[in-house]
Automatic annotation (TrEMBL):
GO molecular function: oxidoreductase activity
UniProt record similarity statement: Belongs to the aldehyde dehydrogenase family.
Tree of life domain: Bacteria
Record has Transferase as a keyword: no
Pfam families the record matches: Aldedh (PF00171)
Domain Aldehyde dehydrogenase: 16-480
Gene coding for it: xylG_1
Active site: 252
UniProt keyword annotations, A-Z: NAD, Oxidoreductase
E.C. no: 1.2.1.85
Protein name according to UniProt: 2-hydroxymuconic semialdehyde dehydrogenase
Length: 484
């Protein structure tokens, strides 16, 4: 049986308390995870602090950048190990993890190392009242010991998205991966040790949220800042923990994202785009589209086309060729998604396709499979339209005017992402300005340039990460004023 240990001060650390790690495809136990208690979290924080005060804190930027490139190269060298680990934990299609999760996981180290190497700081010269001159310049110093609390949907990618810039900026980190997906964070410990990242710079503590590693870590007074991706409700709990000591937070939270398709869109591309945004990763993408609004002249044709696409998605385990839809992450999450499938019926939805669980072969029958599902006919007040489901499902409603589309898209507490499909340049730019989100895609979805800002408006987050924006969170800017 595989054992997932904590990684503290450069060593793998076992604990007496373990919990099971199960495969989403068949619910088989694939490993035991060693849960960190208060003592392990204390040790990780102490190790992270002493690395900051030691070799890591004194290292030149050039050397740090070199080491982070080595981390990326080593992830790529061990690509298959990372891929297998991620597939076992998530059950997602191999093609998806091989093209997105693992390569981007590696890229996150190189991109941010290069940004930190090249980014300038500001400088001003000014005349002083005594007729002299003063020069100001800015210095960036690391935030310190950073807690990185991660979700399960893109485990390596979303974790390195934070660890990459945090380390590039000279911080030390303690990662708390999701209890559902402990593998790749643990494997990264081997990579860090192999390439010579000093002890205590990268630490991993396993466990749950409340009453476990997540809470111990985010409440720890030795942690200088917390970066978190996950549910909005969890963000509220972590923010309360961070209030003690007035510690900064960077939050990437939930969404209830709108997809807006105008009648003048390239129809086939729009259908393909919404198929991805609604169903990719079995709908377990924070940026995914659960509310689709289609302009009335093409509404019926669009619903029919999306139905055909959904029904053509092959459901199955990672390795099977042609699979487009894996399982949900856990039995608990399946129960949540299925409860929304029931609720949609109770709220009066027309089920265009899906709405249940597929029949799977006996070997996979215990897996967390659900059908891709499309609804129409619900009022905007329905809970299925208001609440984040995080499954392979969407509701499609018609609209007539641009103003109506904007009002529908913005009528939500969330503000993460929107995908807009139109061939009219004016419509595209007006929509981009009008939607209340952190990310607006035009004629695309999930297309990312890592130099650009990423994050959510309203209840979808606090702050922006990506490119130089990550530096704003992971460093403290100090102004130095020199009287000449
Ligand atoms: P979650 O909030 O349940 O858990 C995320 C992490 O927080 C886990 O590691 C968990 O153990 C930990 N945690 C839970 N309670 C805690 C507490 N009280 N204190 C400290 N840590 C705690 O989220 P999830 O189910 O893993 O992920 C799905 C959610 O993440 C969805 O809402 C999705 O929209 C969101 N998400 C957002 C983004 C984004 O970029 N905005 C990206 C991916 C996922």
């Amino acid at each position: 049986m595989k054992q997932f240990l904590n990684f503290i001060n450069g060593e793998f650390v076992a604990t007496r308390k373990t919990f099971e790690n199960r495969a989403p495809v068949d619910n088989r136990v694939i490993g035991l995870v060693h849960e960190a208690g208060q003592a392990e979290v204390d040790a990780a924080v102490a190790a992270a602090r002493s690395a900051l005060d030691g070799d890591w804190g004194r290292m030149t930027v050039v050397k740090r950048v070199e080491l982070l490139h080595a981390v990326a190269d080593e992830i790529n060298r061990r690509f298959d190990d990372f891929l297998e680990a991620e597939l076992a934990d998530t059950g997602k299609p191999r093609s998806l993890a091989a093209h997105i999760d693992i390569p981007r996981g590696a890229a996150n180290f190189k991109v941010f190392a290069d940004i930190v190497k090249n980014v300038p700081t500001e400088s001003f010269e000014m005349a002083t009242p005594d007729g002299g001159t003063a020069v100001s310049y800015a210095l960036r110093s690391p935030l310190g010991v950073v807690a990185v609390v991660c979700p399960w949907n893109l485990p390596l990618l979303l974790m390195t998205w934070k660890v990459g810039p945090a380390l590039a900026c000279g911080n030390t980190v303690i990662v708390k991966p999701s209890e559902e997906t402990p593998a790749t964070a643990t494997l990264l410990g081997e990579v860090m040790a192999h390439v010579g990242i000093p002890k205590g710079v990268y630490n991993v503590v396993h466990g749950f949220g409340p009453g476990s590693a997540g809470e111990f870590l985010t409440r720890h007074p030795g942690v200088n800042g917390i970066t978190f991706t996950g549910e909005t409700r969890t963000g509220e709990a972590i923010m309360a923990a961070a209030a003690k000591g007035v510690r900064p937070v960077s939050f990437e939270l939930g969404g209830k994202n709108a997809g807006i398709v105008f009648a003048d869109a390239d129809f086939d591309k729009a259908v393909a785009g919404i198929t991805r945004s609604a169903f990719e990763n079995c709908g377990q993408v924070c940026l995914g589209t659960e509310r689709v609004y289609v302009q009335r002249p093409i509404f019926d044709k669009f619903v029919q086309a999306l139905k055909e696409k959904a029904e053509a998605l092959k459901i199955g385990p990672s390795g099977e060729p042609g699979v487009g839809l894996g399982p949900l992450i856990s039995a608990e999450h399946k129960a949540k998604v299925m409860s929304y499938y029931e609720l949609a019926r109770a709220e009066g939805a027309t089920v265009v396709t899906g709405g249940g669980a597929p029949d799977m072969p006996a070997a996979l029958a215990e897996g967390h499979w659900v059908q891709p599902t499309i609804w129409t006919g619900l009022p905007e007040s329905a809970r299925v339209i208001r609440e984040e489901i995080f499954g392979p499902c969407c509701h499609i409603a018609p609209f007539d005017t641009e103003e109506e589309a904007i009002a529908l898209a913005n009528a939500t507490d969330y503000g993460l992402a929107t995908t807009v499909w139109t061939q009219n340049l004016g419509t595209a730019h007006r929509m981009a300005r009008a939607v209340e989100v952190g990310l607006c895609w035009i004629n695309s979805w999930f297309l990312r340039d890592l130099r650009t800002a990423f994050g959510g408006a309203k209840a979808s987050g606090i702050g922006r990460e990506g490119g130089v924006h990550s530096l704003e969170f992971y460093t403290e800017l100090r102004n130095v004023m020199v009287k000449l």
